[in-house]
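Entry 14. Structure prediction run on the chain below.
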Amino acid sequence: MKQQVIADKTYVSERIRIDDKSFVNCSFKDCEFEWYGNPAQDMGCTFEGSRFILIGEALRFHVTLQRFGLDLNYPILKTGDSIQNAPEG
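Output returned:
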């Protein structure tokens, strides 16, 4: 699937689904990034006070990293089950 390109946009206090999107020179302040696990990228963007919401495959990926003793160093809000009770994937 071709990624949708979004350029030169400012987001403030928004919830943004990032799957299959490429953000170019955008700024994000106090946003929530909703990610289901499909490719997403940013180029030249700025971030302030934002966090990820992991859903589906993205949440299972994070759980797998934690089970192998790895952890991602950014704020994450998990949806559905808690990280300890997330379904095996």
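Residues 78-89 have pLDDT under 50 and may be disordered.
Filed with the rest of this week's runs.
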